[in-house]
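Issue 218. Parser rejects a valid record. Input:
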Amino acid sequence: MGRASALLAFASVGAGCDCLGYAVHLVDASGTDAAGTEGDAAEPPDDPRRPGRTLDAAPDAEAPPEPAPEDAAPEDAAPCDPVDEGPEWDDAEWNTEVPDQDGGQYTSVAVGADGVVHITYFDKEDHSLRHVWGGPGDWHQETIDDDGAGSWTSLEIDADGALHVTYSTPGVVELRYATNGSGAWTTEVLEGEGNPGAWTSLALDADGAAHVSFQFTSRGDLGYASNASGEWVLETVDWPGQTGAYSSLALDAGGGVHIAYLDQTVFAVRYATNATGAWMTQTIDDDGTLPALAIDSFGTEHLLYYSIADEEMHARRTECGLWSEEEVVAPGIPQTSTALAASPDGTVHAVFDIVDGVGRDLRGLQHYVRGSSWSRTGIGGIGKYVSVAVSADLRVSVSAWAQGPDELLYLWRDPE
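Output the parser choked on:
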């Protein structure tokens, strides 16, 4: 997937403690949160020290098969050519529009070959999955699913211009898939033991088949599903404990699946791939969260995440088949979300909203791009549930939710 995103909620560890812990914030089917207050369908709290709750594993959940093996890095890596890099991008003016003034949580943005921008999102008032499309000054709206669904949306467009969306229902989580490939929207539920549904991430292969990562919410396992065989097949990739949160999936040129995700038990950034024919898993950082994954036009994997210990946004990339050392992208703490997208010119674009690590002052949405190194190119504004995509003409498109007025935001910039 060219685009990836993750969402975070913070919780206090204990009274009198200066440290921060992390938890998932839950709501029930009525939109009421775990504390008994009316909530915004799984909206992470704004206060970094507000208590949250973690998902409970089902006590009678059937044990999955043996875990996928951990990757072992070779002791003597074979020499290889340097990783190709994209050009540098300069700072530029960002533009903003409001495609919908009545909702906009859990956004996902994609741009078709025709340049039309598509955004899916959750309307918290109607509890529905919504879709806007068009471009600056010319937006159209429709409802895809009005049956209490629309959180954790992930949107992709196939070679024929058809849209494909995965999303969840709040409360009792249910994984759903929708497409307009037949000319009209059709939806289906991906059913499976373990309650599949949360933190969906979608990518399409060269044949238009869907590949989805998610969490089995009742037992806290990382799940994967695909309809490449003609029907949906679901499987468990990683366990035990609470793992699979904030999953971010990308496909390589050979169709190999790559997934970054959070192990909530120990707050470690994990990675899984079946590119060799069998699932392999490994820990990338044992003190991180909010992973976002993308693969650039050179085939290099890029991973963005938040380092809890350093209170910084960090990045790694694959070099000669191994993950590189950490690169510091930006100081500060992400408020709710991160997003990552690969551009046709070989650059990688990151968007997140952060606060300063010391004063906890909101710095708003940030856009960073990596050519030969990471650099900030501005953006400004305040938004949550961000998503980013880069079109063939190199326009950078960002979707986000403005919480105060409850509006869907579209931000964009053109190349120099």
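Fixed in the parser; the record now loads. Confidence is low (pLDDT under 50) at residues 7-63, 72-78.
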